[in-house]
Model the fold of this input.
Amino acid sequence: MMARRGRPPSVPKIYEGGEYGPDEELAIAAYVAREYYVEDRSKVAIAEEVGLSRFQVARLLQVARSAGLVRIEVNDPGTIDRELSALLQRRLGIRRALVVTSPTAVPLTDIGRVLADVMTETVEAGSLVGLSWSRALRSMVEQMRDAPACTFVQLAGHMSPEGETIGSVELVRRAAENAGGESLPIYAPFLVPSAEAATALLTQFDIANAVAQFDRLDVAFVSIGGWGPSLSVIYDSMTESERQAARERGAVGDVNGRLIDASGNALDHHVDNRTIAISFEQLRRTREVVCSSHGADRAEATLGAIHAGFATTWVMDQPLAQAVLKLAE
Done:
């Protein structure tokens, strides 16, 4: 498709500048909404065409929805197991659980779609949103369609597992682009060689600025790693002796690179001092924390994270939910 040049005839002439009233704003909002929802164009592309910033485009989409110019219907194709979700909430004291059904063995697309819906529900314009890295969260970002303009903060140093083309720095940048907002990446590894190296990196201005936002988050999206090969980025990054030592101290998994035991306690392990990531205490102070996980082999780690009590919403697949309930008996 060739790029459009100039203002199409249907774009109101008021883009040429100056003040305009409510009627003109609705005309702009209607055009922007049609290009975004019907023509499937990005906020950035629309902004370039009409001479606005992507923040203004995001605001106009909000105007279109508030004015009733856009009606969004969510057709639930049966992707949420309501009964199992309610059982998790009752049995484990979870505020909100969304158990995802999927016809595939690795349900990342379905979990990502539900996470994208949760983001639309919980994030408001101007929010400060923390974003970890996982394959489920990558799927969420790919399916983000109607997130308001907000700032995304990377919640741990750079992660880029083998075989992945999109690491955590790129993920937070794409999330911000999809929402028409800003990103605060962390240009440093999430696991560094020594505690001294971590301390030195945290004094660098851009890294310190991003990390300083951990105490100001409105919403955080994180994922749970299990304690085994290919179940956790930090597990795969540690030496065998470090893994064994962590296991002996009770490690069952990790939350965003921070090791956790079966009771939900953060582990006092020397690897923790080498990790650049948000802490459990900072997550507990965050208004909304959305945790995702999948696969029955992450049940022990997921139950530990549930016991930690910082998550307000859990998104997981059926096999994991069933395994967690069995483990909790």
